[in-house]
Amino acid sequence: MKHSRFIESTMIGFTRALSRVLMSEEIARRRGLLQSLDPRVRVAGLFALVLAVTLSRRLTVVLALFVLAVMIAVFSRVGIGTLAKRVWLVALTFTGVIALPAIFITPGTSIATFLGGSLHVTAQGLATAALLIARVETAVTFTTLLILCTAWNHVLKALRLFHVPQGAIAMLAMTHRYVFLLVENAGQMFESRQSRTVGRLPGPERRRMTARTAGVLLSKSIDLGNDVYMAMQSRGFGGDIRILSDFRMRAWDYVGLFAFLCASSIAVWMGR
Amino acid sequence: MHIPDGYLSPSTCATLYAAAIAGWYAALKRLKRFLLSRVVPLISVFAAFAFVVMMFNLPLPGGTTGHAVGVTIAAVVLGPSGAILAISIALAIQALFFGDGGITTLGANCFNMAIVGSLVAYASYRVIAAGSHIASKRRVAAAAIAGYVAVNAAALVAAVEFGIQPLLFHDAAGTPLYAPYRFSVALPAMMIGHLTFAGLAEAVISAGLVAYLQVADPSLLRSTCGIPAGSEEPPLATPVQSDSQRRLWLVVALLMLLTPLGILAAGSAWSEFSPSEFANTGPKAQIAAAANVPRETTPSGMQRLANLWTAPFPAYAPSFVKSAGFGYLLSAMFGVGFLLALSLLAQRYLERRRATRYSG
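Above: the input entities. Below: the structure tokens describing the complete assembly.
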């Protein structure tokens, strides 16, 4: 139904977000390389690799890091098909569209001409486009591996390692929890509206409908915030946030951390 | 506008992280006067709301759809400090748990959308909606304009960040190492999409939400409406003139009295030359000196268009008035009176429309 396509695409977006989180929880429970490491090592190690990707100035080094990311994915039992479909293809499409004109408009040595010499492919343009695409693909693969192989509450606890304030971690945790509740509420509102809609709604009415749905969601959010505040107060919360950490580093975790730091350092040194 | 990893150099990312940390620190410091226990759930739930709103597909004029950022409604309801934190938390959740936007570029994304976006949205909303009633249509328009301007300001900052990459970070052969486009390409590439779709999406959702809150929950608009807490809202029609209004009328009257000052100045005002002045030696010399070009005849375009419209009060003096000073005063009174009559007519029309809608 053409008239409700915007409702459908919004609901598809909601479902996709929820399915991604469910898939991530399922992968995080598997027995694999990344899953066997302490969450703090995973977060620190993968952040270090993302940083190494950003710092590397050589295409070969970035490609080597990409191969490393694929190997980590295989040993962590993350499906290559899933990565290809959900990550690599999306990043390639997005960055490819952005990088493509650079092949032609970056000033430099011409290596090929098209359209009777009016369009030049330059060596510098080709190099910059390849470097950008490789860098984005590799960085997004490491980030996705972190998301897929680590339960969200473990990521949050591990952020303490980077001295992220406890208040900020508490807010991130609460936001993450309520995102799903609000996604569900919004989905139900759109679904009920779609089931009551007959015929094609005019553009202004569609905009009003979406704004009203957002408005109801906003009122619900504020009410929810007040309820949570009262619930926190009734349990004796006075603003002092403490996050319990039950992580224990083992010898295997130190090996993992050493390997991550070695790989990142070598990449940064070779990619200068 | 979510910049992924790899588009910005590490030093740009570090600088923007530093700027974002300064913004977060300032926002937290401002919010510390409230209870932390109150702020944490409110910001968290609002961040969750902003996250969900970013997923909405908004139908836009022209049949397409767009996504909003939610920064304007956050700035309108929570104020700039709350909006900075709520949108930053939403962006961090997107980057850390959904892979939308990079980890190294999280500082840049927060700086662009949460800090620049919130401050511009809040300032625009406050300036445009200043002094208006909570239920005023001006607030809806202010939210729409603030949303449009805020998203485009954030996009402009992002375009600058992209644009400086090839200038600062390239290898010996001139190959750009990060975002490859210079400012001349990055600016239009970023702005075209935001001036058309993204800005419009933010304007639609912000205006729609403010209009909804005016009816459903006006208390949420009070904290940033500029009316001190606990005081009465200004009524829709003020029967007694307030002090500020009285001061305004006094200033208008004083300015009207001072209008004849213009005739004390010698010569013609720059760019207000008339064709007759080209015939006289004095004004012609003045024009030649001002334009740096000696000119003997009246420009043909000016000659052709000079008689297109004849003002009722040429040279600020009706033909029957002999005193130039009195003519200026009369013109000022007529101009102010004409504008007042126009605004009264518009106000009456709007009130009648509103009365018809509620009675219907």
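Note for the figure: Residues 324-359 of chain B form the longest helix (36 residues).
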